[in-house]
Amino acid sequence: MTQTVLVTGAASGLGNVIATHLLAEGFQVVLTDVDATRAADAAAKLDNGEGKVLALGLDIRQPEAFDQALTATIERFGSLQVLVNNAALTLATPVMEISAEEFDQVISTNLRGTFVGCQTMGRYFARRGYGRIINLASLAGQNGGTASGAHYAGSKGGILTLMSLAGRNTSARTTSMLVIMGLMGGSLTLTKVFARELAKSGVTVNAIAPGPMDLPTVHALVPEEKMPGLLQMIPVGELGDAAFVAQAVALLASQTSSFVTGATWDINGGLFMR
To answer: pLDDT at residue 166 above 50?
Structure first.
C-alpha cells in the first residue's frame, strides 16, 4: 500500500528535508506551511511530474484548518495514513524581553498546534483503524499523565522543562532558544497521552527529539563566533544531520512500526541522556 503523509512546516528547514526523504521513499506527500505560497514553491521543487506532492496552506493552530487539509488530501490521494507534526515557531528574543503575547504565540504554535494535529488526525486514523503520528519535539520532556487532561499534562510537561532551564549560565540569546525548546517539551507529554488513547485503534504516536541540526535555522540562531562554544557543549562535537532525522521519521511512519508507540527517540549527540 502506498502511504500518504502530511508534513507540517515543510516549506523549509527540517520539515522540507523530511518531506523530500519521504517522497524518495515512495510516500505521497502533502507539503504544508502556514504560507500557502511558500508551500506551493517548495512543492514545485520536489514534484517530479508524477503528481505525488500536494501543497497546502495550513495554520496548525486551527482545527478547521486541519479538517480542510484532510478533505483536500482525501480528494487528491483518497486517504491519509501518516501525520508529521513538524511546524514550530522559533524566536530569538532575550528571555527577559519576551512579552506575554509572544509567549502565547509560541505556545499556540508549538504546543496547541501539536495537540490540534494529534486530535484531528487521530480521530480520522482511529475511525480507519490505522495511522502513524510523529511529533517533532526538542531535547527534553517528561512522562505523560493519565488522570489529568491532555491540555493540563502537556502544559505541565512544558513547565517542568522550563524549570530545568532555570539558573543556566548562558547568554540571553541562548537561553531564549532553550526556552523555546522547553515549551516544545510539552509535546513529548502530549505524545504519550495520545499514544495511550489511540493504541487500541491501530494508531501509533511517537516523538523525535532532535538536538541542534546542521540547518540554516540553527546557524541563524547561533552567531558564527558562538558556534565553537555550542559544538563544545555537544558530547560528539558536531551538529546533527537532518537527513538522519528524516530516516527516523520514515521508520516510524512505516507499516512495520506497529510495536513502537509513546516513544521518544533522542537524536541529540549526547546532549540529553535518559
So the answer is: no
Q: Tens of pLDDT along 118-149?
A: 999 999 999 999 999 999 886 533 323 333 34
pLDDT tier for residue 101 given thresholds of 50, 70 and 90: confident
Collapsing DSSP to helix, strand or coil, 199 comes out as helix
Distance, CA of 24 to CA of 21 (rounded, Å): 5
Residue 248: what pLDDT? 98
Helices (H), the chain: 13-24, 36-46, 63-77, 100-107, 113-128, 150-165, 172-198, 216-221, 227-233, 242-253
Distance in angstroms (rounded) separating the CA atoms of residues 271 and 108? 27
Residues present in the chain in total: 274
Q: What does the pLDDT read at residue 171?
A: 53
Q: Lowest mean pLDDT of 33-37, 94-98, 109-113, name the range.
A: 94-98
Is residue 90 a contact partner of residue 222, using CB atoms and an 8 Å limit? no
The helices-and-strands tally (H runs, E runs) of the chain is: 10, 7
Contact 159, 198 (CB under 8 A): no
Instruction: Please indicate whether residue 163 or residue 11 has the higher confidence score (pLDDT).
Output: 11
Q: Quote the cell numbers at residue 181.
A: 525548546
Amino acid 10 reads A
User: How far apart, in whole angstroms, are the C-alpha atoms of residue 96 and residue 116?
Assistant: 29
Which residue is it, cell 494508531? 203
Q: Please name each of the domains of the chain with its CATH number.
A: 4-88+115-147+188-267 (3.40.50.720)
Residues 204-233: b if buried by 16+ CB within 10 A, e if exposed? bbbbbbbbbbebeebeebbeeeeeeebeee
pLDDT digits (tens, 9 = 90+) for 168-199: 444 555 545 555 555 556 777 788 888 999 99
* CA–CA gap between residue 30 and residue 7 (Å, rounded): 6
The three-point CA angle 257-261-262 to 5° equals 155
